[in-house]
Amino acid sequence: MQFNNLKPKIIDWYIIRKFIGTYLFSILVISVIVVIFDLSEKVDDFAKTKPSLYDVVVNYYFNFIPYIANMFSPLFVFITVIFFTSKMAGHSEIIAILSGGVSFRRLMYPYFLSTLIIFVMTLTLSLFVIPPANSQRLSFEEKYLNKKVSNTSSNIHFQLDESRYVYMSNFSTWDNSAYRFSLEEFDGPKLRSKLTSDRAVWDTSFNGWRVQNYVIRTIEDSTEVITRGASLDTVISITAADLRRFKELYEALNLWELNETIARLKLRGDESVKYALIEKNTRIAIPFSVFILTLMGVSLSSRKMREGMGIKIGVGIALSFCYILFLRFSEMFVYADTLPPFIALWLPNLLFAFVAIGLYIKAPK
C-alpha cells in the first residue's frame, strides 16, 4: 500500500459505512436486550425500595448502558467484522475487490480506519466519560439495590509521608471504625513517637479520627515519655472514604483521579493499589484490542465458504469469549503477585496479536 494514496476511495467509504453502521446497530440491539433482562431481574427490588422513574431511567440505566456497551465493545467489533465481511464474501464482493487489483493489505485500510474511530471513542469513554457515570450508577445501586461497597481486608498499612506510618488491624465500613490503630513517626531509622489505640473512629464533624484508650510513647535521645488517655482527636491524610475504596469504587475515577489515587496508594504502601492498577491497564488494554480482533475477524471471514457465515460467526464468538475469559484470568496473576499489572493485563493482547498475525499471513493464500 502506497502511503501517498491513503485518501479513502468509494470502496473504502462503503466498507466504513458497513462497519460503523453494523457496529452501532449491534450495540443498540444488545443494549436493549441487556436492559430488558436487567429490569426483569431487578423489578422486585424496585418494588421494595420504590425509586422514582427519573432515578431508574436517568441515574441508573442511562449510566448502565454505556458501561455495558463499552465493556463488551471488543466483542461487538469482532462479531460486526465477522458478520458483514462474511456477507460480502458470500456475495463475492471480496473476490471482486481483490480481482480489481486491490491487495489484501490495502483491503485492511478501511477496516482499520473504522477501528481507529471506535478505539478513540471507547478509550475516551473508558477514561473520562464512564467513570462519573459509574459513580451515579454505584450510588443508585447502594441506595436502592442494597449493594454495599465494603473493604474486607485486614492488616492495613499506610505510609503517610517520608516519616509517618499508620497500621490498622482491620476496618469496619458499618461504623467507620479502625481496630488496633497505630501511628508511628520516625526520624530517619529512629522511632520518635508511636501512638497506639484499641479503636479509632472516623468523625465527620472535624474530618479526623477520634482514637480511644490511647497510649503515646515519645522518645527523645534516651528518654521515653508515656502518655495515656481515654480519647484524642487526630487528623491525618487518610479518610474513611479511602478505606472504603474497593475494586468497584475505582471504576468511578477518571484517568487523572485514578493516577493521583495510584500515586497516593503507592506512597502509603497500600496493597489495594493493585486494584487501581488493574482498572487503569484494563481501560487501555481493552479498547486497544479492537485492532487485534479486527485483523483476526477479517482474516477469518474474508474467504467464501460453502458452510456459509454461520460457522464463521460461531468461531468468532468463541474466540471473543476466549479473549475476555483470558483477560479476566490474567487478573489472577496480579492478585497472586506473580506478574505486575501492566504485563498481566496486556498479555492477552500480545498472545492474540500473534494469532491474528498468523491468520492474516494465511488469509491471502
Topology:
Elements (H helix, E strand, L loop, with lengths): L9 H40 L3 H19 L1 H18 L2 H7 L4 H41 L9 E6 L4 E9 L4 E11 L2 E14 L4 E13 L2 E12 L5 H5 L2 H4 L4 H14 L4 H29 L7 H27 L5 H22 L3
Antiparallel strand pairs: 1-2, 2-3, 3-4, 4-5, 5-6
Helix pairs in contact: 1-2, 1-3, 1-5, 2-5, 3-9, 3-10, 5-9, 8-9, 9-10, 9-11, 10-11
Helix segment tally:
11
Give the structural class.
alpha+beta
Query: How many β-strands, per DSSP?
Result: 6
Q: What is the mean predicted local confidence, pLDDT?
A: 84
The H/E string reads: HHHHHEEEEEEHHHHHH
Strand order of the largest sheet: 1-2-3-4-5-6
Helix fraction, binned, reads 55-70%
Number of domains: 2
Task: Report the β-strand fraction as a percent range.
Answer: 15-25%
Q: How would you sum up the global shape?
A: elongated
Short description:
This protein has 365 residues and is an alpha+beta fold. It is built from eleven helices and six strands.
Describe the structure.
- The chain is of the alpha+beta class and 365 residues long.
- The protein has two domains: 10-146 and 274-362, no CATH class; 154-239, no CATH class.
- It is built from eleven helices and six strands.
- The protein has helices at 10-49, 53-71, 73-90, 93-99, 104-144, 240-244, 247-250, 255-268, 273-301, 309-335, 341-362; strands at residues 154-159, 164-172, 177-187, 190-203, 208-220, 223-234.
- It has a six-stranded antiparallel β-sheet with strand order 1-2-3-4-5-6.
- Strand 2 (164-172) and strand 3 form a beta hairpin.
- The radius of gyration is 27 Å and the shape is elongated.
- The model has no long low-confidence stretch (mean pLDDT 84).
